[in-house]
Design brief:
- This protein is an alpha+beta fold.
- The protein has two domains: 111 residues, Gcn5-related N-acetyltransferase (GNAT) (Aminopeptidase, 3-Layer(aba) Sandwich); 50 residues.
- Helix content is 27%, strand content 34%.
- It is built from four helices and seven strands; from the N terminus they run βααβββαβαββ.
- Strands 1-2-3-4-5-7-6 form a seven-stranded mixed β-sheet.
- A hairpin with a 5-residue loop joins strand 2 and strand 3.
- The longest helix is centred in the middle third of the chain and has 15 residues.
Amino acid sequence: MIGLLPRPRVFVDEPGLNEADSLVDIHAGAFVRGWSAEDLAALVAGPNVFVLAVRRVSVFGVRRLVGFVTIRIAADEAEVLTIAINRASRGKGFGRLLMEEAMRRLYRESVSACFLEVDSGNEPAVGLYRTLGFVEVGKRKEYYNNAASADGSALVMRLQLR
């Protein structure tokens, strides 16, 4: 009888400075207008910004960065600046893991509310944010170029943490 291989492990941590190129590649695969390594480095060097990465560890011990979220805190509010999952790993719960860990961290930091903008036509992302408790508080028409929505609208969503 052949034994079953163990399932790959998944965990969330902070990416290292040496992983900027991987973050940029993931972001470029998720958005029409990607960030350069310099853009990302400048953003992360800013005050009150943090990045969380989700990694998959294969049954052979190989660690692979599959996505990340970048968040900025201002006073007692936060904004999700971006969240990106590599194309091959979408739909597997990695975005949820990132967002849940980010929300835990924001709660520990005494942040009262978190905001984000999402393409109104990106149904998987909108659905995820709604199941996490985000509610629509506004809409920006023609915000995105090459958007999934017909009019390029961005939904502004808010999560009350406290």
